[in-house]
Amino acid sequence: QVQLVESGGGLVQAGGSLRLSCAASGRSFSTYDMGWFRRAPGKEREFVAGIYWSGSIISYADSVKGRFTISRDNAKNTVFLQMNSLRPEDTAVYYCAARMKLQVRYDYWGQGTQVIVSL
Q: Is 52 a residue whose pLDDT tops 80?
């Protein structure tokens, strides 16, 4: 099992940047694919970005391509989401998630961190 704790959320003006972190505890972090998801008020949870256990494959939602960057530091059991050029529509609770490599479903979730982007 793995436990996930997000941090780095907050209030930022449109055009600004934030860096989210997700610290994982438990063994074998390097064998988990990691992902970031978000849920905006009144909307379904949606995929934002994902990175394979090896870091070899990275994917992004079209809405964040070119603005967000996901990365991981396996030595520190941490995954990051660098968010630049933030827009009001990026306002959401952001969740970190993990899945064992070669699996489809994300089984482990953090509690979420709030991001609010103001005009």
A: yes
